[in-house]
């Protein structure tokens, strides 16, 4: 007689709304849905092949997470990343990931060399494609936070991870950034594997501060380009050109 297989509980199955949230969130993180993009429900429902009710629920959740902004009488838009957003988030990153690197270096986990060596090898082969590099870079930081063994820190990190990932996309899209990032990752991993907690923390902080500088310039440049020129300034430039 055949033995019935285990039936997975319904609670473990992601709902349609959760799948829509994950798909749209990922599109926002990767830049496929760039900042200020309008989310037109009928169009998105056709693209995702879903009804508008779970789509509307998904958009509300993304708004609660800070990825979407509703403008009265205008619609829903992908939220912008402001210079203040970058400053606030990266100030937190510097502290918690610096501490994670220190604690990972002080951890006696014998598996960390194999884990970090594997990720560094993967990163080295992906510097030519910033999207692929971005995905593996995120894993590198996840692993270090995991190696810290600090559950409280891990919880704080996870609450920020999606927004960090979105900003990391902008940083790594800058020409030459994956190569610079890889050198930073190697310095962090080296300090962790040598058990040098203070050096690992300094390397992680320096790595994040470098990324912050690039991201700050990128976001400010985008903000400046999006500011419409005033009629007075346009008239002044036209007179100068004559």
Tell me briefly what this model is.
The chain is mainly alpha-helical.
Sequence of secondary-structure elements: HHHEEHHHHHHH
* Rg over alpha carbons: 22 Å
Q: Unreliable segments (pLDDT under 50, ≥5 consecutive)?
A: 227-242
Strand content: under 5%
Global outline: globular
Q: Kindly report how far apart the N and C termini lie.
A: 93 Å
Could you walk me through the main structural features you see in this protein, from its secondary elements to its overall organization?
The chain is mainly alpha-helical. Helices cover 71% and strands 3% of the residues. The protein is built from 10 helices and 2 strands. The chain has helices spanning 16-30, 41-48, 52-65, 83-106, 112-124, 130-147, 151-172, 177-193, 197-226, 231-241; strands at 68-71, 75-78. Strands 1-2 form a two-stranded antiparallel sheet. A hairpin with a 3-residue loop joins strand 1 (68-71) and strand 2 (75-78). Helix 1 (16-30) packs across helix 3 (52-65), helix 4 (83-106) crosses helix 6 (130-147) and helix 6 (130-147) runs antiparallel to helix 7. Residues 227-242 have low confidence and may be disordered.
